[in-house]
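Exercise 3.2. Students should predict the tertiary structure of the chain below and write it as structure tokens, then compare their answer with the key that follows.

Predict this chain's 3D structure.
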Amino acid sequence: MNFRWAINEAISDFRSQISIWALSEFNLGSEIWDLRSLDLWLIFWRWRYTGRDKVPPMKSEKISELTTARLSVYLRCLNELHEAGIKTISSQALAEQFNLNSAQIRKDLGYFGEFGVRGVGYYVDDLREHITNILGLDSPHRVGIVGAGRLGTALANYNGFGRSNFTVIALFDNDARKIGQKLGDARIAVHDAEKLGEVIRVESIDVMVIAVPAKAAQKVLNQIMSAGIKAVLNFAPVSLNSRRGVKVKTVDLTTSLESLSYFLARPSTGAITRPRQERRDKDIAQTERDLNTR
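Answer key:
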């Protein structure tokens, strides 16, 4: 009798903890009991004993740049959902609302752990936090731009960087007429390019942007690497040679426009390719649904 009483008391106490947790964390009431018992135990145990601020262990597979680029897109979508006050969303609803692929979303997130809850989907705020940590956006990044011409100035004035925890700290140029000026609403100072290494160290800059003519880009990159920078965004229309451990990402606007020109020159190609892609995406999604119902 005493044993049964103890068991009942333990179950009652657990249900009380679950209810308090569900109400405080996700504003859920009695609907929390609609979840399968195993899912309930798992999500409560993970929250109670492992800490919700920890990113699930990432798989050992090499992650492609396309995957990390899509994570950035997912984060932008989740930010919109957060601003709209939406608490949970399924991969299918996320795909339909933002013209994405639900199977691809699940695959991409699967590289980094298990985020969804059966019967609920994704908790928007939790997934936002996890992707923010995965992309390294939980810490601020200080940016320097080499080239204070039209492109460099436009990048320095772009307000969107702040939303992703990037702040432009300094501009660099070799034009004596520009050195010493302060540009844009943020009044960003233009420094002598010869003092690039010194300014990077003093201002604790960790990301550099190259916005100079192609013929000068490699020399600028060499200066940047000598200053210890490991992440570089290159807008010069040229392929650059970097050291091991230095990541250079090139954005070539001309190449992108030429790709669009190819599409315009062969309009029938797009009309054929897209339906095939859509059918392939639907087949993948249907296969996953069939497997889940078995």
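Discussion points: The chain has a mean pLDDT of 81. The domain at 55-138 is CATH 1.10.10.10 (Arc Repressor Mutant, subunit A).
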